[in-house]
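Late entry, written up from scratch paper. The run itself happened at the end of the previous shift, but nothing got recorded in the book at the time, so transcribing now.
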Amino acid sequence: MQGKNTVNVARNGRELTLTRILDAPRELVWVAWTDPAHVANWWGPNGFTNSIRKMDVRANGEWLFTMHGPDGGDYPNKIVFTKVEKPKFLAYKHSGDYNTKDVKFEVKVTFEEVNGKTRVTMRSVFESSEELDRVEKGHGAIEGGKQTLTRLGEYLENMNGGKSMPK
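Output as recorded:
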């Protein structure tokens, strides 16, 4: 059984899966995840902020953003959504912006209702186990993913008490 703030992590070869149960209804979690006005407030590990240039949440839509790190660095990102099923599923391809080859992987995110709460599962698939090793060592993928889902949970707690849709 997951505790309130627990992020479960599973790694299998080139796949990394992060799961957390959030104390908010699925529709609210979906809004927090797909509305750039909300995403900018919680996306990324602790200490990061975001500038979102574009967020078009639909199949073949792009999400272009820059993560600003606590180290003063700017990290451009590009996500292309491959499948969107509101409010239960997102799939996307992630890379650095402007076709950089820094980090590339595919992600599937499920939003599952569980007794008035939402189980979010992020399954990231890298090109190889070695690539996941490189991203973990160089970018702290596992800890960063855990912190990101924790920040989402904290943000939802402050978003209308996490129980109702924003107006």
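The longest strand covers residues 74-85.
(Scratch paper discarded after transcription.)
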